[in-house]
Amino acid sequence: MKFSLKVISENGPRLGTLCNLKSHPGRVFETPISLTLTQGGSIPHLTKDVYYSSVGEESIFHFADNLDVLQAYRKGISNFVSLPTHPVCVVIQDPGTELRSGYNDSSSISTWTDSGRIKLTPKKYIDLIDSMLPDWYEALNDSDTNFCASKKRIEKSLNNSLKFLKQSLRMLVYLLHFWAVTTHWIGSRWSKTIEMEKVDGYCLLGLHGNGATPQNLDAEHIRKCVLASLENIPADKMRQAQGAYSIQSILEMIQCGVDIFDSSSAFIATENKRAFSFPNTFESLGKLRKWKDRKVQRHREINDENQQSKKQKIDLQDRGRSHSCNMKLEIDVTDKSDSKEPLMVSCKCYTCSTFTRAYIHHLFASNEMLGQVLLMIHNLNHWEAFFKTVREAIKNGQFDAFKETFDSVIIILFTIASTESASTIFGFLSFFYDVTIKCRSVH
């Protein structure tokens, strides 16, 4: 596998390509890119016939108790799960499932399958990788840490991960058909330690416990941690971040130079009965910018009126900053169950082109499986369209302006969320629609 940079700037967004993949040597993928999260060889709620994706991410623990079967099969995981057209990246833990903490030790990493707890030693992990034949994979690591982890836990994580990496690299001498290996890093000390190791990229782990936990992290804190870690990382190697991060955090990491993400956010949103509706194109962001300007002007007029009537002035900027950047604006579709509009009027996905919001509400109210299928189709399409827009923005030198506009809109939306009713916000924009009642990996 070859990773090349087409656009690079110091402490800025990067545009790159992934090519010469072992399974698909003729295909080229542009970065920043989102890997499609898969569980047990399939995209959650979807079949391969319903949704086709170009790059996927498979979790090792789904197959940790099937080593004998995979070794006997000898054709790799992509053929095993009937997705031969998909390149594969293998990770240890499922980014969409919250990590069970406290079970790793100095000789193994714990995962849970249908058979229960399985301890992955470096030898067993490399045997699994050898039988799965991925295009690249995450080195065995102890990433059971987060922002609240103690100094002692972090020290153990670093020491265990480095030991596992060295043991794995010694075994890899005999596995020449692997083109890449990613490993986990946390903080400047770790990045200095592995700078000279024989790895082809770096994976950002140890900041959260997977599942929905990354959405509660402050984007500014993530930015500082990423910058500190990238300080000693070679610029020509790919950088991967796993987890259901917020859009603000994703933009911050892209600006810091992270290349690869995953679609676990779309999965988490679907599980929570939410439909993405954040601006994912230049057109939608432009419309939102015009709405924001009108809204700011209206609030200024209200402030002037309040001043004249000796009422307390509302400072939009201060009120915006006082709210967490992880706050989500949501709409309860229970009140809109008779709406004949799609989830998003501007969306061209199969769900929005075919079905109304009222019908999707009916599916969830009736506990129909089709509801999650349609919602997952929309969320994945919306998510991938966002990354396509990001790549276009970097190509055209507009990423900083795109991010600045996005951030400024977010501040205004947070302010309005604190001063207006949800029914009023619905008329403009929300990040998620509440649909009431609430990977095998690809590169």
From TrEMBL:
The keyword Transmembrane helix applies. GO terms for cellular component: cytoplasm. Residues 312-321 have a biased composition (Basic and acidic residues). Zn(2+) binds at C347, C349, C352, H378. Non-catalytic subunit of the queuine tRNA-ribosyltransferase (TGT) that catalyzes the base-exchange of a guanine (G) residue with queuine (Q) at position 34 (anticodon wobble position) in tRNAs with GU(N) anticodons (tRNA-Asp, -Asn, -His and -Tyr), resulting in the hypermodified nucleoside queuosine (7-(((4,5-cis-dihydroxy-2-cyclopenten-1-yl)amino)methyl)-7-deazaguanosine). NCBIfam families: tgt_general (TIGR00449). This is Queuine tRNA-ribosyltransferase accessory subunit 2. It comes from Armadillidium nasatum.
